[in-house]
Amino acid sequence: MSLQMNQSKSKVSLKNFDASIGLDRGASRIKEIIWYLFKTFFFLSALPYPSRLKVSILKMFGAKVGHGVVIKPRVNIHFPWKLSIGSNVWVGEEAFLLNFEPLLIEDNVCISQRSFLCGGNHDYKNPTMPYRNGPITLKEGCWIGANCFIAPNVTIGTDTVITAGSIVTKSVKENLVTSITPENFSKPRWV
């Protein structure tokens, strides 16, 4: 069976992607492997391990975590050593914290089920698609609704509510209730 080739040839060259450029892992490979084992057993599990235990494990791996933090089952945290969580924070089931860069979650923040805080990205304008990761900051009292996507280099303002299913690619001011959906747009990839 052969693959039918398109008339145009893609400019993308993923074979030339260099994973060492644009990503400081922040820890040794051994620490990452050990974290992955702990994450698989205690965080990605559907078993309701106590939040206190999960907080202790996060601190053991370098996270800064306040008191009264609730972490539900099946939460995926990529690099705990790049994570700061304030006090009285709730993290819902199946939330994914892809924190290639620092992730700051201030006090009294709620992150609802299946939200994706995505600090990782690629430069789609470069054929080798190098990383263009960025930090995320969730200011005090904000609420990220269920199934939201928060992109790199985004700050969610104090007391702001991001409604369920929103896609946030730019920072949002404080004290808002907002639903953000992508605008319908098209633009050339290669200029």
Rg from alpha-carbon coordinates = 18 Å
The number of strands is 16
SSE arrangement, N to C: HHEEEEEEEEEEEEEEEE
Q: Helical stretch count? A: 2
What is the CATH C-level name? Mainly Beta
Distance N to C terminus: 35 Å
Mean pLDDT across every amino acid position: 93
Number of domains: 1
Instruction: Detail the poorly predicted runs.
Output: none
CATH topological fold name: UDP N-Acetylglucosamine Acyltransferase, domain 1
Bin the strand percentage.
Answer: 15-25%
> Helix amount, in percent?
10-25%
CATH architectural name:
3 Solenoid
CATH homologous superfamily placement: Hexapeptide repeat proteins
- Main beta sheet: strand number and arrangement? 6 strands, parallel
The secondary structure category is: alpha/beta
Please state how the strands of the largest beta sheet are arranged side by side. Answer: 2-5-8-11-14-16
The coarse overall form would be globular
Can you give keywords for this protein?
single chain; 191 residues; alpha/beta; UDP N-Acetylglucosamine Acyltransferase, domain 1; 6-stranded parallel sheet; 5-stranded parallel sheet; 2 helices; 16 strands; globular
Describe the overall structure:
With 191 residues, this protein is α/β, with parallel strands linked by helices. It has one domain: UDP N-Acetylglucosamine Acyltransferase, domain 1, CATH 2.160.10. It contains two helices and 16 strands. The strands form three sheets. Strands 2-5-8-11-14-16 form a six-stranded parallel beta sheet. It has a five-stranded parallel beta sheet with strand order 1-4-7-10-13, with helices on one face. The chain has a five-stranded parallel beta sheet with strand order 3-6-9-12-15, with no helix packed on it. The longest helix is centred in the N-terminal third of the chain and has 15 residues, at 29-43. The two termini are 35 Å apart. The mean pLDDT is 93.
